[in-house]
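Posting this for the archive.
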Amino acid sequence: MTTQPQPRKRSMKLTDLVTLTAPTPKSVKVFARPYWTAKIGSKVEATGNDAYTAIEALRKVIENAFDGSYTPHMLSFRGHLGIAWRTSEHWAYMIIDPDGIKKAEGVLTRLRANSLYDAEQETHKHLRSHMAQWIWDGQEEQSSLIEDEEDQQRFTSWTRWQKRYKELAATGMNDAAIRDQLMMERL
């Protein structure tokens, strides 16, 4: 009687899939890389002071990609649409003006962002402040869109600066002179 060979039980480890890149030698002066890099494929990578910390950082990147929701968030204000979404590594947002919304009607459009954030709430905070400035009516000094008190104070300061700039420009001053004047006024 012959027995069938039993497959070996082997559990895969993250290190089975990782490509490690050592730091460049100290003799390399151009594009020197003083850290270890752990990669899976060409998209997911992390760095560390040694191979172990690079792999642990990569493990955290992978765990974070599976944690939480990827549901996008929308914010509509004065005909503009703000969209915040999550990638596997970051949060991002974009603002679409009414003309952009009309142009995109019936067209599947990619979301493209200019800034990336580490946290959802940070993204929402920046989206609200950016939309408030972008859609500012030229008069208000407070925005109902902004929830954070510090951001509201910055918005108020920004609006006063904008109004004063407009007043000085109406007198015929050039841009450099206006900016010098505003610096002295410390709005």
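The chain has a mean pLDDT of 90. Helices lie at 51-66, 98-103, 120-134, 149-170, 175-185.
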